Amino acid sequence: MLPHAWHFTPLAASLLFFGARGSRRQMWIPLTMLAVTDVVLTKFIYAYPVTWDHLVTWAWYAGILWLGTNLREKSGLLRVVGAALASSVSFFLVSNFAVWAAWPQMYPNRNFAGLMEAYVAGLPFFRGTAESDLFFSLAFFGIPVILQAVSKLHSAGDHTAAA
Asked: Measuring CA to CA, how many Å separate 128 from each of 10, 29, 79?
């Protein structure tokens, strides 16, 4: 069993939400925690070397945090869906390119055909990434809206008559 079944994780949604709702002065916290986690998992759990392509992933984390800051003022349904899809597509493009570039033993064709081979190999993971980015983004941004609406309904219905 994979560590996260079907590549279904809340990573991008968490970064988007923290970017939108978190303190700008504390943006380094999730970025640092994710980078440290990557190093620990890569080096000590999976026993792989930490290579330069990790820097690409960490830059992507920072980029998605920044994208989330654009949802700070306006975070309507279409903007959240667009940011979630942009997260999925950008991760697919960036991560597969980095693996192709950093691991020539995995993709020995160092040409356009080899790059396309890397993208094709990543396709089975894209569906789970896109689904989870959409699901968790809608949940993270939608639950506060729903709770606020329920709270307003509840307080509007609190008209008890004095007897």
From this structure: 11, 26, 21
Place of tokens 């190999």: 121
47-60 per-position pLDDT tens digit: 999 999 999 999 99
Closest by alpha carbon to 66, among 51, 48, 87?
A: 87
Q: Tokens 């939108």 appear where? A: 20
Quote the longest CA-to-CA distance of the chain.
Answer: 83
- Give this prediction's pTM: 0.89
Q: Give Cα 37 to chain centroid, integer Å.
A: 15
Residues in the chain: 163
Amino acid at residue number 117:
E
**Cα dihedral sign, 139-145-146-151:** positive
Distance separating alpha carbons of residues 130 and 122, to the nearest angstrom: 12
Asked if pLDDT for residue 77 goes beyond 60, the answer is: yes
Radius of gyration of the chain (CA): 20
Q: What is the DSSP secondary structure assignment for residue 162, as one 8-state letter?
A: P
7: region left, alpha or beta (phi > 0 left; psi from -120 to 50 alpha): left
CB 37 within 8 A of CB 61: no
